Amino acid sequence: MASARSSFYFVPLLLLLMFVVSSTSATAALDSMPSSRNATARLRSRKELLKYKRIRAMLKKLNKPSVKTIQDPPERPKDYNISVNDGGSRAGDVVMQAWHAAGEVCPEGTVAIRRTTEKDLLRASSLRRYGRRPARWGVRHDSTSDGHEHAVGYVNSDKYYGAKASVNVWSPRIGDPSEFSLSQIWVISGSFGNDLNTIEAGWQVSPELYGDSNPRFFTYWTTDAYQETGCYNHNCRGFVQTTNKIAIGAAITPKSVYNGRQFDITLMIWKDPKHGHWWLEMGSGLVIGYWPSYLFTHLARHANMVQFGGEVVNTRPSGSHTATQMGSGHFPTEGFDRAAYFRNLQVVDWDNNLIPAANLKLLADHPGCYGIKGGSNAYWGSYFYYGGPGRNVKCP
Fold it and tell me: What is residue 1's DSSP assignment?
């Protein structure tokens, strides 16, 4: 009986001891193993740390230290100072940049550069392609859109050594932050394959690139159809700025008002016969800088097409056409004070003469979304109105 009683008490004690040991082991195992939530947090932290390291490295690369560039003054096209009478049209009022209005100036011997910030890079959909357009986007050459749409006037029947025009400045509504709306001059050479060379300048509204909806003065270039070369503004090596009066990528002010005052900027791009560089001028004689001739293949010689006009990106949000506006957001049939325009369209010929853009052709990818309508008179020379609202009953 005693032996049986001892066995009776021994078994529960043994089971209790086994339970305590196993519980302790399990607790130790749980303590030594991180929870899935902690592991996910640590993984996210590592990814964010890597992203910020890449951002800091890119900021260091983009925001270069100040340098002083000395370059011989360019030889301008002949008769470039001849002005065209606006006939009291209220067009061409003085346009400034927002930083001018704040009273800021740059010291002599420096240039005005808009710095890239961490916020700029965090907004970018791709760090690798920051400050660059998607490959093959940007030039209107056929009837397909591939996500971008144009309303342009163009010439392509000669060899061109530059172009000049005045364009009024607006603040079109952008339907999706990843989209943009711009108005610019394109100087183009090469085929529309992988060897396309372009030089571009104008104004642009791009929330992703700049972080707001202000129209901004911008430049662009590429030598391989937007694949690996070129960029906006100073986001890569290329464009050499020579003025401290204008900051490329800075906001333009004031803007044109519907049924009110119109403000435009005059832009000229031309090839200096002496050194072969492509120069950019804004307004009445303010030279901004140049694209060195060594950047290019076909444009090292001349351009074979010039385009003037507007472009938008259409990502088809919610499956329908974007509501991103082009120009003023109104159709060209509304005319002056209401529609966006390009006026006094000119090109530079082989002998460095600035001449009217003859045989101008007008094209709109989707006229129900963005249209174009041209004309000619003694005040504006060759001109056109362009733009539109994007999505509407004629543009589903």
Answer: -
Q: Is the dihedral of CA 131, 132, 137, 141 positive or negative?
A: positive
Position 175, amino acid: G
pTM: 0.77
In this predicted structure, what is the pLDDT of residue 126?
Answer: 59
At 204, the amino acid letter reads Q
> What does the alpha-carbon distance between residue 150 and residue 366 come to, in Å, rounded to a whole number?
8
For 145, list phi and psi in degrees, rounded to 5. Answer: -105, -40
Q: Tokens for 393, please give them.
A: 């009953």
Hey, what amino acid is at 19?
F
**What is the pLDDT, as a whole number, of residue 155?**
97
Q: Which of 96-100, 251-255, 276-280, 365-369 has the lowest mean pLDDT?
A: 96-100
* Residues 21 and 28 sit within 8 Å (Cβ to Cβ): no
Full DSSP string of 315-361: --GGGS-----BTTSS-GGG-TTTSEEEEEEEEE-TTSBEEE-TT-E
- Which residues carry out catalysis? 200, 311
Paired with 280 in beta bridges are 269, 289
Tokens of residue 178, six digits? 């990843």
For a pLDDT cut of 90, what percent of the chain falls above it? 54
